[in-house]
Every structure is written in structure tokens, then in C-alpha cells.
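Lecture 7 notes: from sequence to structure.
We start with the chain below.
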Amino acid sequence: ITYYLLLITYYLLLITFYFLLFTFYLLLITYYLLLITYYLIKNETKKSRV
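Predicted C-alpha cells for the same chain:
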């Protein structure tokens, strides 16, 4: 019984770890996308000013 319990906890930890990693990468991607869009908008405003 204890063996199965350890296995379940191990898999749960693995799943949570991967989930955190996935969310971290998603945040990173969204951050970079926002950064890119910000710079693009900045450039566009610069162009329109001139």
C-alpha cells in the first residue's frame, strides 16, 4: 500500500513540477510578446511623429 502511495505522490509532484514549468514558460512568452508589441508601437509612434 505504501508503495502505491509513494508512486502517486511522486507522480503528483512530477505533474505539479511540469505544470509550474509550463506556466513559467507561458509567462515568459507573454512577457516577450508584450515587450515586442511595446517596441513596435513605440516605433510606429516615432514614425508617425516625423
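Points to note: The chain is about 95% helix and 0% strand. The chain has a mean pLDDT of 93.
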